[in-house]
Specification:
Elements lengths: L5 E5 L6 H14 L7 E5 L5 H7 L6 E4 L16 H6 L4 E4 L2 H6 L4 H13 L3 E6 L3 H5 L3 H12 L12 E4 L13 H18 L2 H6 L2 E4 L7 H5 L6 E4 L6 H8 L4
Parallel strand pairs: 1-2, 1-8, 2-3, 3-4, 4-5, 5-6, 6-7, 7-8
Helix pairs in contact: 1-2, 1-11, 5-7, 7-8
The protein binds 2-phosphoglycolic acid.
Length: about 250
């Protein structure tokens, strides 16, 4: 079993290329990029190339925050996986709750996007998570099972080699409310059990499951100490190099 921790930033709709260059110049001064963990950043499409160039020489993986599933065609406004790969990026965040809630991404779309991402040899970071109403109605596991079943439909254990899951309770995103490490661990353990049932034990043991939702320098270590939490997807605290450096350098 080897699950290398993955700390991923998600800039959402923040930063121009100039700001991305400035950010990476700062980050490089603040961290040694410890070899026992991986670092990734989801950046806006127009800053992909600048971010790849600015992070050159570091182990940082640059990620897109969405993808369309066709390779090319008359799809105004969309960006394909081969286009993302051609920038030198290495990953794509898929099915973020903001995409599901504000832009209509469905489970079927998530599935097509993961497929296209794998075909372009990029690492998909597939987001799942329940809303507050769903948690309060005791539907958390059902909601996650449905999102996972739809998002990973048709995949074999071999397809899962590079897939990363990110558990992001919607009520904890950008709200300052973090799931307690114990609450997050309960869900992560459930997702791992689901992976064992849907695929096999090796997939369950090897798939990284990130936690996201108000991860900050002062709560990352406690979250990361949980057995089934293999990393973090960080929004707000990834915008400043100083706070993100503290997150990636957490004491294991
Ligand atoms: P947050 O965002 O860290 O600002 O809560 C997390 C995310 O949406 O990925």
């Amino acid at each position: 079993m080897s699950r290398k921790p993955l700390l991923a930033g998600n800039w959402k709709m923040f930063k121009t290329s100039a700001q991305a260059r400035e950010f990476f110049a700062d980050l490089i001064k603040l961290t040694q990029f410890k070899a026992d963990r991986e670092v990734a950043f989801g950046v806006p499409f127009p800053t992909l190339e600048a971010s790849v160039q600015a992070a050159h020489g570091t182990p940082v993986i640059i990620a897109a925050q969405d993808v369309y599933w066709e390779n090319e065609g008359a799809f105004t406004g969309e960006v394909s996986a081969p286009m993302i790969a051609a920038t030198g990026a290495g990953a794509v965040i898929i099915g973020h709750s903001e995409r599901r809630q504000m832009f209509g991404d469905t489970g079927e779309w998530v599935n097509k996007k993961v497929k296209a991402t794998l075909a372009a040899k990029l690492m998909p970071i597939v987001c799942v998570g329940e809303s507050l109403a769903e948690r309060e109605a005791n539907k958390t596991f059902d909601v996650l099972d449905t999102q996972l079943t739809e998002g990973l439909a048709g995949f074999t254990p071999a397809d899962m080699t590079t897939v990363v899951i990110a558990y992001e309770p919607v009520w904890a995103i950008g709200t300052g409310k973090t799931a307690t490490p114990e609450m997050a661990e309960e869900v992560h353990a459930h997702i791992r059990k689901w992976l064992a049932g849907r695929f096999d034990q090796a997939v369950a043991d090897n798939t990284r499951i990130l936690y996201g939702g108000s991860v900050k320098p002062d709560n990352v270590a406690k979250l990361m100490s949980q057995a089934d939490i293999d990393g973090a997807l960080v929004g707000g605290a990834s915008l400043e190099a100083a706070s993100f450096a503290k997150i990636i350098d957490f004491d294991a």
